[in-house]
Write a structure and sequence with these properties.
The complex is a heterodimer of chains A (250) and B (437). With 250 residues, chain A is of the alpha/beta class. Chain A has helices spanning 42-50, 74-80, 97-111, 119-132, 138-141, 150-164, 180-193, 209-212, 232-241; strands at 4-13, 16-26, 31-35, 55-64, 67-68, 82-85, 92-96, 143-144, 168-172, 199-204, 217-222, 225-230. In chain A, a hairpin with a 2-residue loop joins β1 and β2 (16-26). By secondary structure, chain B is an alpha/beta fold. Chain B folds into two domains: 16-278, no CATH class; 383-437, no CATH class. In chain B, 18% of the residues lie in helices and 39% in strands. Chain B contains seven helices and 21 strands. In chain B, a hairpin with a 2-residue loop joins β2 (88-93) and β3 (96-103). In chain B, α1 (25-41) packs antiparallel against α4 (141-148) and α5 crosses α6. Chain B starts with 24 loop residues before the first helix and ends with a helix. The model of chain B has no long low-confidence stretch (mean pLDDT 93). Classes of the chains: A alpha/beta (250), B alpha/beta (437). The interface between A and B is medium-sized, with 28 and 24 residues.
Amino acid sequence: MSLLEIKDLHATIHGKEILKGVNLTIRPGEVHAIMGPNGAGKSTLSYVLSGREGYEVTGGSVTFDGKDLFELEANERACEGLFLAFQYPVEIPGITNTTFLKHALNAKRKYHGEAELDGLEFVKLMRSKSKELGMPDDMLKRPVNVGFSGGEKKRNETLQMALLEPKLALLDETDSGLDIDALRVVAEGVNRLRSPERGVLCITHYQRLLDYLVPDFVHVLAEGKIVKSGDKNLALELEKTGYAEFGSAA
Amino acid sequence: MSEVIDPFLRGFGYSPVDLPLAQVEWMTNRRIEAKNAYERLGLPTNRLEDWKFTNLKKLRNVDFSLATKDFSISMAALPKAVPNIDAHRIVFVNGIFDAELSAIGELPNGVKLGSLAEAIEADPDSFENVLNASVDIDASALAALNTAYLADGLYLELDRAVMMEKPIHLVSLTYTGDEAVSFHPRHSIRLGDGAAATILESHVGVSGEMQSFGNAVSEIQLGRDANLGHYILQKEADHSSAYGLTTIKADKGSVYDGFTLNLGGEIIRNETLCDIDGEHADIRINGAYHADVKRHHDTTIRVNHNVPNSKSLAVFKGVLGDQGRGVFQAKTYVERGADGTDGQQLHKALLLSDKAEINAKPELEIYADDVKCAHGSTSGALDQMQLFYLESRGIDEERARALLVQAFLHEAVDHIRHSEICELFHAELEDKLGESA
């Protein structure tokens, strides 16, 4: 069975059609990359899948792990195992990272009828995960993403992913604004999560992340549709030729 | 004299000879003078610029009784809502000192702490020039009213260089039985040069069936390099209204770290009037409020930088839900020649309902050239991107909203410099918001 099946997906924002019939199937264990020029609909796709308000699905269907994705609220999608790593992780002053992560993990556990973790159990689990990612403890005590550097924010996304153990990770331009070291750390974090049961959908403008996160499939999204698919070599090709042939600038 | 139609003079008739300390001549004279001033000024109305956004109309038709010693309430124990901290505890029930509930404990040398009424009785002359030293009864009707009924409150005096280890816990309990009640506490706080103390003020409503109006005046005098932490927790009952005027006189190098957390009450106005009279004074008047149901929380601040090189900060954050209303009026005044002044004001409001209302009026009045002053005010709804971020991590919308509201206020509470009280205020916030979440 496929993990994610997108069929002829159409979506609009403020009445403007952005996705114009996207088709994509991801099976467990696969890593897919979607590349494309600016304005192709890459971010819209990730927001439509994760359930952000303001986007209207006007046609098509998405099945996630056998369930109709659009029947689920954003938080339910997360609890079912969909994880969006944000291009620009949001700062939340006043909530410590630890509190935030605890609420997130316990929300998922509750959803699946599991007992919630108490403070001590949680901190133990969080420490072990953050250690693997080489995150300093003070990042856990600070308010969510507040004053974090670009790299720290992305590392924090990776930590959340490691804790929530999603079935499908959706990486939205995860490489934007990173230096090479941070890029490596984040890619390693994602690679550590790779398993025969999990899928990864990596949305990116540049090929560089794919050096570290070798995809099984590469797709080109242009003007709201997937216009070309191939293997990792397609990404290398795009890096050379750019997106000009797909009728868009940049 | 024409008949006075006023909720605070009408009911019981003003009779200074029946008030405590009537034997002290200057006290009686001052009370009568203040009563006359109050009659002249009258209860503030919206026609006054300073009272444009806070309306006391609701109080006008209430038959308030004056809380007196005879009308004392015996309580077996402190209500659970009073925070339990290791402190010198002094308790007032409707403004009157309650020795039974107080636990002042052993005081360091050079500290005088107790009931103001008892202190005046013991040595009346020493207070003649202390009380009202920073209060202008011709400018403030409610301060005049407070003076007209001046009887009891907290008396704290620290000698030079005395540092108190434990905080002072001033507990103000509001109790209404069958009658609406008013009371007018006066707190007199003086720190000598280099002295240091921490005061936690807990205002707790015990019964909420009838209305009450507490009209307090706190006079604070800080000597050179003195340090006062002053933290106010307001958890009055739904029908209780309160006005509190705090005056601060700050000498050279003194530090005042103030924080007010308003969580309860009906119409609440906290007014702070600070005169910085010495260089390098550092004044922080911060706070947070949560005005849900029909609460009205008014914060009015005036800081006068009368000398060069001093600092003031006022950061307030408020959450307005249901039909809650918030008012923030702050004026930073910089006197001619007060160069090097650093005066900052910031107010942020979060509006959770269409019927909630906020009126913010930050002002700067600057007559010096070389100053660093800024003010800002924002108001808005919950941040949709923050909300989505939490939901995208599995947290349901209701919980996510509650978390963000808490986070908004917790951030303000972090301004408290006293770590134990900072934690306490965080916990109080969780207590209150846990209920409504």
